[in-house]
From TrEMBL:
Residues covered by the Amidohydrolase-related domain: 52-427
Function of the molecule: Catalyzes the reversible cyclization of carbamoyl aspartate to dihydroorotate.
Cofactor: Zn(2+)
InterPro entries: Amidohydro-rel, DHOase/Allantoinase_Hydrolase, Dihydroorotase_CS, Metal-dep_hydrolase_composite, Metal_Hydrolase
Annotated source species: Pontimicrobium aquaticum
Name this polypeptide is given: Dihydroorotase
Amino acid sequence: MSNKKVLIKNARIVNEGSITKGDILIEGEFIREISSTINAPEAQIIDAENKYVMPGVIDDQVHFREPGLTHKATIATESRAAAAGGITSFIEMPNTNPQTTTIEKLEDKFEIASKTSFVNYSFMFGGTNDNLDEILKVDDKNVAGLKLFLGSSTGNMLVDNPEVLENIFSNTNLLISVHCEDEATIRKNTANYIEKYGEDIPIKYHPIIRSEEACYLSSSKAIELAKKTGARLHVFHLSTGKETNLFTNKIPLKDKKITAEVCVHHLWFSDKDYEEKGTLIKWNPAVKTVNDRAQLWDALLDDRIDVIATDHAPHTLEEKNNVYTKAPSGGPLVQHALVAMFEAHHQGKISVEKLVEKMCHNPAILFQVEKRGYIKEGYFADLVIVDDNDPWTVNKDNVLYKCKWSPFEGTRFKSKVTHTLVNGNLVYENSKFHEVKAAKRLTFNR
């Protein structure tokens, strides 16, 4: 390990609810010193005058499509886009091909990431109706957690046997993350609309097919089960106002047994956008009403919702341009999530301190990530520098995803990520990549 030094000068340091002017000295992989002014003649200097320096974003939910679906994306392409977006650590989902439902398949993914990822990584282990034995072998110090699809899954990953579910909830110490949509409700709604329109259902009906009722039914059941069994439950991508009332802000995050996440697209888009964006904003769960979006913002700001993530899930444009029933759900987001949230800050919706809490501090607390998510002496130097006054427009030429499109194309952002450091190494600087392999496997303090 080299002991090279990097000194970030004149930064607006955003950490733990405050913004202070100062310098940050990095030595090797770690933050060595934080002070109002530091002299280190031998260090490489980065001048952050008038810019924010924040901890690297920890994205707790991405789909990077490797192995098996690499025509859409790879760990290399998407982690590179993530670095450009200020994301320095990701947790990737198990619904690849083959699915990550055995220890062997999980280790295969870690092996790929160790060679190709631009940023720090961990993976969720996938639960099925018949792999409890494998779940019990997972080491919770080295793996982010367990992912259960209680609706809307591919292959055999739908866990729809109530006995199995209770068994998993009762027997694992892993943090259980869930996708909550009630499959029976969705099937019934889909059949009704197919009868009316055939396969080419107008996209505006997507949030009515994958309805508030489908979401609430599933998430309320999962929460009931978690309370009954004492399991540690994290509900992914809330999309309805109604669901926000299932969560509490009465206790500190570190003591919560039941937590929630919201994704950038549910905070940004509403059903009013389907007309312009079509299947490009087809996600599961669906983007819902303006009112739902407003209630998600309220719950985020009053701490019923704990984390902002992306659910980055790329598909090719060819796949997305199919008729409703054949167009897959999901879209790419890691490159634009942080600047989109800075845009919300410019609109007066969220403070920079709160944004850092929800994208950096809270994922670290919630997943007990070791020595990341904060700007602290002795912590890994995962840092992002943001210029909040350097406007640019998203277009095909600057989109970095392998799928080469973004739901934000045509959007003008006021803020830009200028530097991303991973474990003390500058991996991204002013639209250029330094091809250093600095990424590490995340470890968890459990």
